[in-house]
Amino acid sequence: MLAKDNVKLSDTQSAWMQSYIISSEKQQHLYKRTLIVIVISQIFGGAGLAAGVTVGALLAQNMLGADSVTGIPTALFTLGSAAAALLVGRSSQAFGRRTGLATGFVAGGIGAIGVVISAILNSIPLLFVSLLVYGAGSATNLQARYAGTDLASPTQRAKAVSMAMVSTTFGAVAGPNLVDVMGKFAISISVPALAGPFILAAAAYILAGLVLLFFLRPDPYIVAKAISDAKRATSKLSSDENATSLSINRRGIFAGAMVMILTQFVMTAIMTMTPIHMGHHGHGLNAVGLVIGFHIGAMFLPSLVTGFLVDKIGRAVMVIASVVTLIASGIVAAMGSADSMTVLITALVLLGLGWNFGLISGTAILVDATHASTRAKTQGSIDVWIALSGALGGGLSGIVVAQSSYGILSLAGAVLSLLLIPIIFWAGINKST
């Protein structure tokens, strides 16, 4: 990092911050501590995320009585996620990751409580408002991956993202497989069965927020920003070099954003309608939970390997791998038998894996292209578009299936993912930074 005699420290810089700026050993210690805290919080966050994914569409179908509106819950909590992504990003920029992430998770927990109350009262307006607020947890769960990259070197960035994501697996896989258990628990306390998973989501999101609030200290983003400011103060880059760097960054930001936006759109659209598609072919709630559990496992569990590959063989190669995997998922979902659990699990595993490749490689491209002084705000703004793409995918999915079929929806997602290849080549994304 920085040698002590090369850093001009501010007279007002606190002593503890100075110690991090001048000590690469302390920076690495904080980097490792941050990853541990993020891992713990993401285990809870994953469980909170899984509830809406698994039963949100079924709850809406039950309360609204029509298949064409079953995409509304996904659209609503992803719209809420979009607003929360902006607020969490801005809050993290101003006050640090700890404040932004903890607030987002607690808000998601409050939204989940609102969903439970709306199911008890059979109140559609309260359901819609609560799903919007519940979306804050989803946005925060996604933005937590950035916290691990704040103090990571360029060759550690994808692996840092993968650590946050793989830890989400434990809660995210357990959540769908607890649908039946939580449904029975809900009935035992006079709550509708489909609201049961949201009870789990409320507790999980609030616990995730509390872990971050109490243990994400010192704040990695505040430390990383101070280190970056000190580096910039001693930088001798010419104005021409800065202009060239800015041009490259803009292309990198756009490419990284588009990879994450398109993979989110395709994944959300197909995933949202899978429980409804299964219901039409006689599959029960346990079967739905199993398929979604495999899907979410594929979204997060391969992350450690994905992060290693993104850092070693390159961002562009893994984006292409994402495209190929999403195409395979769309073909299997469209052409395979809906009565076969093997076909459904295979299609949804491929869908989750394609999303995983896209999110980690896209995140690494984005971090490579941003400067610490504005990184959190930029990340939050792009996560808004990721969430909006998910909202659009979820909202349109029900309409597409109602007007055509689940197979057409799946094939359309496969074709759309092909757009990523020319974007990556245009941006000139290569192996690393």
The CATH topology name reads Growth Hormone, Chain: A
Give the distance, in angstroms, between the N- and C-terminal Cα atoms.
17 Å
CATH architecture, by name, is Up-down Bundle
Q: Based on CA inertia axes, which overall geometry fits?
A: globular
Features:
globular, disordered N terminus, Growth Hormone, Chain: A, mainly alpha, 433 residues, 0% strand, 17 helices
Give a topology summary.
Layout: H1 15-22, H2 24-64, H3 72-95, H4 97-121, H5 124-147, H6 157-177, H7 179-188, H8 196-215, H9 220-233, H10 239-280, H11 285-300, H12 303-313, H13 315-335, H14 341-369, H15 375-403, H16 406-417, H17 420-427
Give the gist of this structure.
This protein is mainly alpha-helical and 433 residues long.
Task: Describe the protein.
There is one protein chain. The protein is mainly alpha-helical and 433 residues long. The chain has 17 helices and no strands. The protein has a single domain, classed as Growth Hormone, Chain: A, CATH 1.20.1250.20. Helix 2 (24-64) runs antiparallel to helix 5, helix 10 runs parallel beside helix 15 (375-403) and helix 12 (303-313) packs across helix 14 (341-369).
